[in-house]
Amino acid sequence: MKKLVNTIINLKKSEVSKRINNRLKEFSSFKNKPTDAWFSELCFCLLTANSKAKTALNIQNELGAEGFYGLSQKEIKNCIRRNKHRFHNNKSEFIVGARVHFDIKNKITKLIKQKSQLDAREWLVQNIKGLGYKESSHYLRNTGHFNLAILDRHVLNLMVENKLLQEKPKSLNRARYLDIEQKLEKVADKLQMSQAELDMYLWYMKTGEVLK
Predict the structure, then answer these.
(1) Whether residue 103 is found in the same domain as residue 51
(2) Which structural domain, as residue segments, surrounds residue 79?
(3) Catalytic: 119?
């Protein structure tokens, strides 16, 4: 852990720190955005599962909330395929299926106010087909909620490289996800930062990019 912590401390002294802080401010401001923006972000996170964030972002920019909510499944599928994004059949089905939760902002905001971000993530996993724990954590981070880990392949690989994990898990059930999340929480505590901020640095270390 020591080497990883020192690397992030040095990154915090570099130009990348400003980029990450600006991105975190964007996430925090999401709470003030309208319902359709929250639904669009939900669709973006559905697209990112087992796929590239960059092409998911291209699709989101092309379709927007109106397209995600108003176009037919076939039209959405064609857009996903046109952007050379994976799993166009399943992803388009998940997006259309998520429309019953168009009022996602109200549901998530109420859940977090009454319970917690953990409870909101459980609700997403149980109610939004196509979202697992990683994607649900991703969605909550992007909408301004910073207490949850996004355990994607980059983060898991870094954890293995820094001996926080013995090996990269082949699958992540709920118990395993929560266990690994606790390991990252110790790193975040050491650095006195949120899981969201830590994730941005870890992602940058592996990709050289600061995306959402």
Answers:
(1) yes
(2) 33-142
(3) no
Q: 105 with 166, same domain?
A: no
How many residues in the chain? 212
Query: Is the alpha carbon torsion for 119, 123, 126, 130 positive or negative?
Result: negative
45 is a domain residue: yes
Domain count, the chain: 2
> What is the phi/psi pair of residue 14, to 5°?
-100, 180
Q: Is the pTM of this model over 0.90?
A: yes
How confident is the model over 79-108, as pLDDT tens digits?
Answer: 999 999 999 999 999 999 999 999 999 999
Q: What is the pLDDT of residues 116-162, one digit of tens each?
A: 999 999 999 999 999 999 999 999 999 999 999 999 989 999 999 99
- Catalytic (active site) residue 113: no
Residue 44 makes CB contacts below 8 A (sequence gap 6+) with: 56, 57, 59, 60, 142
User: Which residue among the candidates 77, 91, 105, 134 is catalytic per the annotation?
Assistant: 134
Encoded amino acid at 52, one letter: K
pLDDT averaged over every residue in the chain: 95
Contacts of 113 (CB under 8 A, 6+ apart): none
* Catalytic residue selected from 77, 152, 199, 212: 152
Confidence of residue 212 (pLDDT cuts 50, 70, 90): low
Residue-level pLDDT at 21: 95
